[in-house]
Amino acid sequence: MARRRRASTNRPGRDDAADRAQARALLARLAALLRRIEHPRADEVDALRAGFDTDPATAWRTLDGNAWWAGAGSLAAESLVEPTALEPAERTAAMQEFRALLIDLAELLRARGPTNPGLSSWLLAFRNWAASGI
After folding, report:
1. CA distance linking residue 118 with residue 48, whole number of Å
2. Which of 78, 94, 103, 113 has a CA-to-CA distance to 62 between 20 and 30 Å?
3. Rounded Cα–Cα distance for residues 83 and 113 (Å)
4. What 3-state DSSP class applies to 133?
5. For 60-78, how does the pLDDT look when each residue is reduced to its tens digit (9 = 90+)?
6. CA 63, chain centre distance (Å)
7. How far are the Cα atoms of 5, 11, 116, 117 from residue 2, in angstroms, in the given order?
8. What is the spatial distance between Cα 64 and Cα 105, in angstroms, rounded to a whole number?
9. What torsion do the CA atoms of 44, 16, 128, 94 make, to the nearest 10 degrees?
């Protein structure tokens, strides 16, 4: 069965400009974290942030895409790999911040409408790990 794609507009009653501003702010924080841990996708996240200024519909589709939420190789899956660029004592906090930012992005996407099928599983896992201090 084919996945139903979300329309380029969000749910009625939502402030699209506020959603874009929130996405840009979260992506800026995520890109900064990825640079700090020397993650190779920092520039990709920064480019997506800029995309919300030039082509928001494409930026929303990209943020909801498989590269973010679907299995191995997704950014969500990469949040499981501890950054070797940091000292061992700093790694746990960085991973918790990484996952917290992904939670915030996932919740923003869900508030706007239907999302990538993989997003719900990651969101549940991230919330459980956060509650457990992992």
Report:
1. 20
2. 94
3. 32
4. coil
5. 999 999 999 998 899 999 9
6. 7
7. 9, 22, 12, 11
8. 9
9. 40
DSSP code for 80: T
Q: Quick check: 77 and 70 in contact, CB under 8 A?
A: no
3-state DSSP of the chain: CCCCCCCCCCCCCCCHHHHHHHHHHHHHHHHHHHHHCCCCCHHHHHHHHHHHHHCHHHHHHHHCCHHHHCCCCCHHHHCCCCCCCCCHHHHHHHHHHHHHHHHHHHHHHHHHCCCCHHHHHHHHHHHHHHHHCC
pLDDT tens digits, one per residue of 10-50: 667 899 999 999 999 999 999 999 999 999 999 999 999 99
Q: What token pair was written down for 78?
A: 């990469």
Are the C-beta atoms of residues 13 and 6 closer than 8 Å to each other?
Answer: no
Of 134, 132, 6, 21, nearest in space to 69 by CA: 6
- Tokens found for residue 40: 């190779």
Q: Which two tokens stand for residue 97?
A: 């911040």
Residue with token string 């992904």:
102
Answer whether 114's CB lies under 8 Å from 8's CB. no
